[in-house]
Structure formats: C-alpha cells, structure tokens
Model the fold of this input.
Amino acid sequence: MTWLQPWAAWFLAGLPIIVLLYLLKVRRRPVTVSTLIFWQRVVQEHRRRALFHRLRSLFSLLLHLLIFALIIAALARPTLDRFVREGTSTVIVLDVRARMQATEADGETRFAKAVRGALAAILDASPGRQFAVLTAGPQAAVPSPFSGNERALRTVVEKLEPTEAGGSLDPALDLAASLLATRQGARQIILFTDRPIAERPSLIVRTVGTPRENAGITRFAARPLPASPSTSEVLLEVRNFGRSALKTNLELRYDDRLLDVKPLAIEPGASQTLLFPSIPRPSAKARGHFTATLAANDALTADNIARVWLPPPRPVRVLLISAGNVFLEKALSADPTVSYEMLAPDAWSDALAAKFDVVLLDDFVPSSPPSTSAFYVKRSPFDAAGAGLDQPVLTEIDATHPTVLLIDFAQTTILRAQPLTLPPPSPEWTYAAPLRSFDHALFIVGEQRAAKPRRIAALGLDLTATDLPLRVAFPLLITNTVHWLAGASVEPPSAVRAGESHALRNGFHAVTRDGRAEWLAVNTFDEAESDLGGSSAGTAVLSGPRTAEDSRSYQRFEAPLLAWPLWRYLALGALVLFTLEWSLFHRRRTE
Done:
C-alpha cells in the first residue's frame, strides 16, 4: 500500500489527547442529604456492575480511537495500486457537441450528467495519478493538461459548457491517444458522451443519454427575387426525429416582427418543406434578420430556432454615358436600389466617372480605360476584327455566373451582334464569357486581382437589332451586371452551421467584411445532433483490448461501486462508526 499524502500522519499526535480525556477522573461535587437509606441500593448495584462499567469505558475509547484513525487514513489517501510509483495517466474526454444540451426525463441535461461523472473520476487525482481534460466538438481542445491537482481539475471541468455545433469524436480521441503515448505507467481514456462508439484500445465509454423525442429545423435560406427587387422568398425544412407524430406551429419573424404562422403535421422520421414566396425584402434601414421558431416542446431547443440574414440592398450609383437609350434608362429605373445620372459621350470625364460605383458606356469607348468598374454595351475594347454576326444563336449560357443567374434567354431573337475576343488569362485579370454563340463570345466579364479590384463587362449586342429589351431577361441582365460590377453578390446568402466559422453559439453575430458591418447567422443545422434516438444511458463500455497493467490499475472504473478510491471507503467507514457511537451513547451503552 502506498500513502499519497503522508503528511496526514502528523494528525496521529492527537491520539494521546483522546486517551488522556478518558483517563481524567470526574471530580464529584459533595452534596448534603437527609439520609443514605435510599443510596445504599444504588451503591451496591454500582459495585456489582463495576467490571461492566470499565469494559464500557474501554469499548468507548477504542471506538473513538478507531474513528480517529480512519479519518487520518482517509486524509493520507492510501492506494493499493502497485504501479503508482511509475505514475498513472487518465485522459477525460467530454463531449461538448450540441446534442449534449438535450434534457433528460429527470430535467437534467446530458452535459450536466457528463460533468458530474468527470468530477467523480478526478477525485482520485494525486501527484502519482494525473488527469488531463479534453473536449470533443467541432475541434478538439485541451482545457487542462496532465495535472494531479484535484481542485484545479475540478475548476476546469466546472467551467466547461456545451456548444451548439456538431462535430466528430475522432480528433479528440486521437489527440488523447497521442498525449498518453508519451506517458509512463498505466494509461486510460474515459469518454463521456451520449451514445456508444466504435471500439478503441484502452477506452472506456460512459454514456449519459436516453432516447428522446426531438424535432428540428434542418434548413433555412432566404434570397431576393430577381424579378421583384423589393421581394424575397424564404425556404425552410423541418424534420421529425422522434417516434411519434409531430403537431406544432412554425413562426416566421422579420426583425422581431411576426410575419406568418404555419401549422405543421409531420410523421415520425419524415420532413416538411415550407416556402414563403412573398416576403418583404429588407430596406436599407432594416437589419434583415429572419428568424424561424418551432413551437415544439422537445428535448433539444438549440435546433428549434433558425436564423438567416438577408442583407439589405446596397445602393449603387451609376453614370450612364449615352446619346439617348430608352431601354437602358428604363432598365436602370426599374431597380429601386440603383440611382443613375446620364451624360452625353462628349462630356465624358474620367475624374467624374471615378465618383460613381459603375459607369455604363452605351456605344462609346473612351480613349483610356475608366478608373472604376465599367459596363460596355454594343462597342467595347473586346470587339473582334471583321464583320459582325448575322442572326447568332445563344449556344452556351453559364447559368452559374452572377450576371446571368436565373435569367431565361430561350425565346431571345438576335438579328446582328458584334463578336468579342476573350482575352487570355493574365496575372492581373481573369475573364469569362457567360454568353456564347458557338466559338464567338457575345458577353464578356472580367475581374482584376488587386487590393481594390475593378470589374468589367461587355455586351456585344445592338439593342435595336434584338428583341432582348422587350423581354423580362433584359432588366434582370442589366440589374445583375450592375450589382456585380459594384461588388455586390446576387447569390442568395445562406446561414452557416455553428462550428463552420469561429462562432460556436447560435445567433446573429456582427462581423466586418471589406470595411462593412454585416451579420453572420449561425445555426445548428446538423441532423446528427438533432437525432436524439439510439442512446444508451448508464452503461460503461470498455472499448478495445487492454494490457494487464491497465486492467489491474484501472479496475475501479469498470463499475460504479469500484469507481471509488480507497480513501472514500475509509471516510465512509468513519462516518458509519461515528453514527453507531452516537446511537450507543444515547442508549447509555458507551461513555
């Protein structure tokens, strides 16, 4: 047996004090009485029980000495571990993923149960038995390296909190194995999670969850409608992960203002998709916060609220250089986020154009390239030499490019077009041709690689020789291209999962991009976290083979009763004897 805290032996100096208290004789107080007749029988009885009295005093003394010895032995922290001289190392891995926030039937969360189990394990911490604490979530973390200080370890564990993100246990378990590889003596990993996992060497899995009913929002997205700049549409998906049918309501809010309430009825294991097609697009003064709330009383609340940020449209200032083009003027006027001014070609000034976000050049090419993003229509610096194309057909459309996103050119007729030459790639510029007629480019876009990049677009069409201006595709093409040239993206913004960014908590997080204040909508959005079935509570699963050394050193972890260190049993024995002595004293069996 090894005593981990031998300094407790100094308390043995108190043993003579206990013995001395029993050797002290009680000084009797003389009292005058009228007669001794009534006391003679008591004196005779006292003489007959003198031996029993001495035995009773001796028994009381020995009982008190035994209680005191057990208390000192508990303070000395004895251990029967034969490998304590080499040291033993334990890595405690706590699962901090979103589903550990699930509430069990007793009202306690899975994470609270895991923390309580971890605190019970580190009670055995000592200089010869050290523990490290790891967390398993979106990334593996080491809140505490190896330490034998029980108080410091307890402080670290009590401060841990679960995240609202998903993740894998493997990185944390791999890190734990790497930490143990450098340690001497017996080694062990204890994982606190909500369900069994695949076997690993020297791993004990303690599960703290039971199957629970749960439903969650698994998708939530919003986008502006290209055909209606002042309107947006919202898409949601709700999935029922429970074993019973779900009947509840879904609330949609815009900047904390209630927009709509939808009743839901979802069968077990099924999902329901909701589309809100006509939602007001955020104005320039609005935050653009869309929030969906599932009114379900289930075990996990993190997936019952979803958020998405639809940025308000950025106002774009456009300078139109044209001798007069009613089609371009009407297309620019149709977009409320665009304000434009028009100048004749002979009034061109690059200094004036630099004050605008985009310059739109109608059948005009200045002598030097503009210092701001430019949109050429009909004539451009990319015009190919030779005659134009008669009745070209659009054969290739890059529908993924933001300038032609969600635009239908199927019924467009073109009488004449100016073919464009696509420049070769260069270190400064990248080019693409979203619209082609066989080998001829009809629409070219380019972007400069720089700290403050410029963009360029050229449309080789004579608007009077095509019916494109008479179709819905034309204002969409002008709007998309102008916003893309101004640096805005017309792609629908999407909410991100917790853990994909630095944010591990759901909500709207303020961020700064390109000097602009924006919002980042963070949600759980993880079916593996929302599915709370298939857990097994109260089990201690030994994963993988163990060495004989590990088996002997850590046999106490195999069952809850054996998880107690030896000093706990000594302290419990002292408490039991103290209770027994208190009972005997009040029954006049001890002194």
User: Anything to note?
Assistant: The chain has twelve helices and 28 strands. Residues 48-52, 537-562 have pLDDT under 50 and may be disordered. The longest helix spans residues 50-75.
